[in-house]
Amino acid sequence: MADIELVIKIPEEIRLALINNVQLSLDQQSICDSYIKQAILNGTPLPKGHGRILDESQVTGTFIWDNGYIECYAPTIIEADNAESEN
Questions:
Q1: 66-77 residue pLDDT tens
Q2: Whether residue 26 is found in the same domain as residue 62
Q3: Residue 54 has what pLDDT?
Q4: Which H/E stretch holds residue 31?
Q5: Residue 71 shares a structural domain with residue 84
Q6: Does one domain contain both 28 and 1?
Q7: pLDDT digit string (tens) for 22-39?
Q8: 29 and 62 share a domain?
């Protein structure tokens, strides 16, 4: 089964509960499962071969024109996927 990279949006409380391995009640677990299921169903798949993902509001430095390309400097949120595109 192939892996995909998926951008999802979930409440911070659920993320922290999962990271900290917090024991949830059955009702809380049901709510958590529902949020995660909906997040996956509504998530945005990143295409194979995508470039690095960055926060454009954090772009700093000078733009440099080099052989027809503009380079910008910003922290990387998600590294580029070097896999070949499926096209």
A1: 676 666 678 888
A2: no
A3: 85
A4: helix 26-41
A5: yes
A6: yes
A7: 888 888 889 889 999 999
A8: no
CA 24/CA 29 separation, integer angstroms: 6
Q: 45 in helix, strand or coil?
A: strand
The identity of residue 42, as a single letter, is N
- Maximum distance among all Cα pairs of the chain, rounded to whole angstroms: 59
The model's pTM is 0.64
Strand 60-66 to strand 69-73: parallel, antiparallel, or no bridges (unpaired)? antiparallel
Contact 4, 81 (CB under 8 A): no
Which candidate, 71, 49, 68, 48, places its Cα nearest to that of 60?
71
CB 48 within 8 A of CB 84: yes
Q: Give yes or no: residues 41 and 59 share one domain.
A: no
Pairing of strands 76-78, 69-73: unpaired
Q: Which residues pair with 43 in a beta bridge?
A: none
